[in-house]
Amino acid sequence: MDDELGERHLAVCRRFGESVRAADGKWDRRSPCDAWDAKGVLEHVIGFHDVLLLRPLGLKPDRPRDDPQLRWELTYQALEKALKPGSRLIERVVDVPQLQGNPPMKLDARAMIPNLTRDVLVHTWDLARAVGADEQLDAQWCEQFYAALPTDTAALSVSRIFDAPVAVSDHTDVQSKLLARLGRNPSWQPPNDDRS
After folding, report:
1. Contact residues for 136 (Cβ-Cβ < 8 A; gap 6+)
2. Digit-coded pLDDT (tens) for 86-120
3. Are 50 and 60 in contact (CB under 8 A)?
4. Helix (H) or strand (E) holding 22
5. Which of 21, 91, 149, 196 is the most buried (most CB within 10 A)?
6. Burial of 103 (0-12, 13-18, 19+ CB in 10 A)
7. pLDDT tens digits for 118-144?
8. Which pTM was predicted?
9. Nearest alpha carbon to residue 117 among 20, 13, 2
10. 132 burial class (0-12, 13-18, 19+ CB within 10 angstroms)?
11. Would you say 128 and 22 are in contact if contact means Cβ atoms under 8 Å apart?
């Protein structure tokens, strides 16, 4: 079971890598996340892996500043080391250092990894939608993460990590339901000047 969590995370990261490859030359395109362009989405995904996994484990790679695709490839390689079968990472408590005024903390990897995986999955859509790439997510993954969301629809937005849920039809697909619960408008489109 624990290895399955790691394997699923790596599989979702490989899917994110498809959006990264499609973003070549389009890194300044605006994304569904108001604060970020396409490169900002990538750097956010790299950053939370660094803070929550790679740096505490001593696996943070040395990345070039000016090659977004290589930055992601090196991140993925480090994640493969962290999550390889038998690594027992899932059984650990991860020491997260003090960062941006937040005190150091200890996080149970078994509880943390599924949340990281869900975030990578949703940011795959963010990046794909920004750059006009394939944005279809695995329906089974969407179903798993949607079913695991809190029953209180406002619970996640209270944290200020997610925007308020977006209303969608009960008859919409599970991908759109997941995106909407995590504060995204599934109908969002990049501005016309970003589509050329």
Report:
1. 175
2. 777 777 888 877 766 677 778 888 888 999 999 99
3. yes
4. helix 2-22
5. 149
6. exposed
7. 999 999 999 999 999 999 999 999 999
8. 0.91
9. 13
10. middle
11. yes
State the residue for tokens 């390689």: 77
Taking the C-alpha atoms of residue 141 and residue 83, their distance in angstroms, rounded to an integer, is: 18
| Cα of 143 vs its chain's centroid, Å | 16
33 touches 118 (CB < 8 A)? no
In eight-state DSSP terms, residue 87 is -
For the record, the structure tokens of 51 come out as: 């803070």
State pLDDT tens for residues 15-62.
999 999 999 999 999 999 988 999 999 999 999 999 999 988 899 999
Identity at 127, one-letter amino acid code? L
